[in-house]
């Protein structure tokens, strides 16, 4: 089980990402636009840099929904490899069967 503080911090990051998503998108659009002047681009880059670091979606970590483990996660199930195996063997995951050939 992961530390509760790490799990909570990741949840706070997710909230910040959703809060600043529109602002980030607008600033990035201004930076990429061919119509914007160099001064506008520099200003937009400065505003983007002034946003909180945790507002960047890259900083959100995929964690296991059960244990909070940050490594070895299967995105489709949002479970770590260990939890996935336990649940699959118990038959708690719909449509997942052990392979045999």
How does this model look, in words?
This protein is mainly alpha-helical and 101 residues long. The protein is 51% helix and 4% strand. The protein has helices at 4-32, 38-50, 81-90, and strands at residues 73-74, 79-80. The protein has a two-stranded antiparallel sheet. Strand 1 and strand 2 (79-80) form a beta hairpin. Helix 1 packs antiparallel against helix 2. The radius of gyration is 20 Å and the shape is elongated. It starts with a helix and ends in an 11-residue tail after the last helix. The mean pLDDT is 95.
Tally of individual helices? 3
Main sheet specs: 2 strands, antiparallel
User: Averaged pLDDT, please?
Assistant: 95
pLDDT below 50 for ≥5 consecutive residues: which ranges?
none
The CA-CA distance between the termini, in Å, is 34 Å
Question: Which shape, going by the Cα principal axes?
Answer: elongated
Structural class: mainly alpha
Strand order of the largest sheet: 1-2
Rg over alpha carbons = 20 Å
Portion in helices: 40-55%
Strand content: under 5%
- The ordered string of helix (H) and strand (E) elements is HHEEH
* Count of β-strands: 2
């Amino acid at each position: 089980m992961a530390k509760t503080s790490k799990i909570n911090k990741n949840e706070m990051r997710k909230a910040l990402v959703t809060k600043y998503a529109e602002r980030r998108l607008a600033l990035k659009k201004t930076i990429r636009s061919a119509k914007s002047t160099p001064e506008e681009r520099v200003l937009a880059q400065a505003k983007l840099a002034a946003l909180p670091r945790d507002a960047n979606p890259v900083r959100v970590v995929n964690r296991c929904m059960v244990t909070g483990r940050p490594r070895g996660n299967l995105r489709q199930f949002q479970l770590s490899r260990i939890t996935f195996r336990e649940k699959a063997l118990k038959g708690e995951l719909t449509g997942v069967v052990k392979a045999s050939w």
